[in-house]
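Record filed here:
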Amino acid sequence: MDPGQRRRPTARAARLSVLLLANLAAVFLLVRSLTGGDGEVEAGDVQVAEMVSSETLAAAAPVSAPVVEAVAEPVPDPGDVELARRLEGQVASAVARAAERSGGKVTAANTVVALHVLDPGSGRVLVARQSDRALRPASALKLVTSAAALVSLGPDGAFETSFESAAPIEGGVLRGDLVVRAGGDPFYDPDARGAVAQLYAPALRALRDAGIAAIEGDLVLDEGSYLEPGPAPGWPSADQHWQEHCALAGGFSANAGCLTAVVEAGRAGEGARSEVRPRNHGLERVGSVRTVGAKARLDIAVGATEARATLRGEIPSSVKDWSSRFAHPDPVALFGSSFMGALEREGIDLRGVVRRERGVPAARRLALLSTPLARVLAPINQESNNAAADQLFLALGAARGGAGTREGGRRAVAAALAELGVPDDGLVQVDGSGLSRDDRVTARQLATLLGAVLAEEPSLREPFVDSLPRAGRSGSLAGRMREAPALDRVRAKTGWIEGASALAGYVDAAGGRRLCFAILVDYPRVSGLNTHCWKPMQDAICAELATWSPAGGRVR
């Protein structure tokens, strides 16, 4: 039982002071209740228990003393003891493997494995192992971000990017600026391999329908209350910032803040077809790719600075198609360049430049791009796209937290958790993705959140559950738990940064119940442990949960 739920017996001590020796069984029940059923007693509780016992014995001496019947406290539910024993065995085995693999650097003393398993159908906590320890959740934090956004904005919520102008349209020319108001949209299609023009198409059509063939002024990007793009506190070092997982977020973005390199091999000895997308990304392209022999090694380098995008190297003729994503240095600039290029391809002449502003007065709306929130849930939870999650976090802050900043996002998430009835004690949220090493959450919070979402209406619950990877089938779990009993029974979010591993989600147990679980591991930063120790442990725990039955024992 949670120590916070233990009831101190001060009032009961006074009543028990007149018990006879024959009532010592009731005293035992009281002391048992103090331990939470697990033999662990807090220091303050030990003193109270000793006081009750000594006073009881002293009062028991006179045989003629009146007998006062004790009303025993309810014995706390210890959970499923047998399930806890089996899961404890999986934890112990994983820690032992980690100790061996790390040459003793990892021990039970410097490793924390927190585990919380909830049966929302009955409300029982089946297993609670260090589940109130606030630990780094890594990408499992995306569960908090996406659930909070669904609750706050509703299943019909959307990113909205408005196109406005106070200028008249005369003879097909907008006689002034076209103002675009930030909505936090990542403008990301995971199936488009970096292309974004199709996402802009509804706005382009609306501008054409308004009779605009040319814009005399500038394309003004109003960033509103959104923060200036930059790394969050606790992010990886600067030498990683070019990589996809460190892509930045802001009021505007495109392709979730990334560039996508696409290469198609030709004949050996000839140049390969290579492209950096989105088109009109605003950087100078440098480098080329050559096709080499079929058995040669794939050797392609990518990267971006404030001025240049690099794509160079060699591709074997046997590799017909290859692509890779890498971070653009400024997502706002990427949106501006790519949208300007889309205007040109639509036949709308922008005569001015792209300009960034804040607080431009509202004007007549000419077009609106509305991207359903549900469209980004799969990239966030299936692919674990960090920038998309951070965009959602900022957009949630702008809509419900007072500003499109990290602090605004935190306020909005706290309000959503309160609405769901999930305590936020110990929660520290620096970003929406879990990339920051400063993020903290407890296993109890994650499992409780998952249970709270299950209690919501289907229009909210189903998009959330469907967005999670399926064991052995999709997303980051496609290669895990590919055999019974966990295959197809687990929907969960993975998470990993150096020194932290996580898995949290749902298990459809063979006994007919859907369980909520969260596993958080904090360990010394030794390479290879997540793959060889913590992931197998998480998978084994899920396999145990998949065979659980409320009647006891295992069901296959």
In short: The first strand starts at residue 112 and ends at 119. The two ends are 29 Å apart (CA to CA).
